[in-house]
Amino acid sequence: MDHLETRELVYFTAVAEELHFSRAAERLGIAPPPLSRAIARLERRLGAKLFDRSTRQVSLTAAGRIFWEDSRRALQALESAVHRTRRFTTTAPAVVAVRPGMGAGVLADLLRIHDAPTEVVFTHDQVSALRNGIADLALLCSDTDDLRGLRLLDLTEEAPVALVTAAHRFAGREGVTLSEVAAEDAFTSRCPEMPFDELLDRVALGRLITVVGSGAVGRLARGVAAVPVKDQPSARIVLAWPDGPATGAATAALVRRARTLITSAPGEVLSGPLPGG
């Protein structure tokens, strides 16, 4: 059998996700008949039926489910290769993955002293962003699950604080418990994936209450108060990047800049030398 083309995997994945040929064709920007013919040709080449079709529904066969999982991994690997290759240049910006509300203070300090182009991606799965090539570096808690294959630079420690509007009954208190905060109607345990300034605007308007790291206190907007969450532990924040030689110039420069922030910090946890030196 000839090697499959990437286009065939893209077509198949679109149908597998939509389970509807017309919707998949619209998503791909092609007409349904060519898409249907492409899937039929793929099935003949594989010698396996991938979809059960009827006039009312489309569903994956057992073989189709297996091929879907492998196709998604293959396309993710291809996308990762493209991301990493594009960033391994002298002009590509370093991309930092950050969980909303975490490390806001140290990130602001780092961007302030780093004069090379840098982009920030807000996500709740920073490790996947690193491994998929979406980001070059990430701010993580040191107790994050599965840090294998990552180099870590210890940056700072953050205690949890609840962000509330300055008019809230919690504002000015010495501390609250997580259960008290969670009982509020505006509370969300998962910070929205947005820039920190926008998050603060929502808090100031009384539309959001959430728990973030104490490093954010220095960046609080007018009308927002931070209250310590007494029954939750502090977390160590580390800068992480994939182990290996393929590190772009901007990534190496950003890591070197980060080291200047921790001259008086407890130290660094590194699996090897810094990138670029």
TrEMBL record:
It comes from the Bacteria. Residues 4-61 form the HTH lysR-type domain. The keyword Acetylation does not apply. Keywords: DNA-binding, Transcription, Transcription regulation. The keyword Hydrolase does not apply. InterPro entries: LysR_HTH_N (IPR000847), LysR_subst-bd (IPR005119), WH-like_DNA-bd_sf (IPR036388), WH_DNA-bd_sf (IPR036390). PROSITE patterns: HTH_LYSR (PS50931). It holds the Pfam family LysR_substrate. PANTHER family: HCA OPERON TRANSCRIPTIONAL ACTIVATOR HCAR, TRANSCRIPTIONAL DUAL REGULATOR HCAR-RELATED. Belongs to the LysR transcriptional regulatory family. This is LysR family transcriptional regulator. The lineage of its organism: Bacteria, Bacillati, Actinomycetota, Actinomycetes, Kitasatosporales.
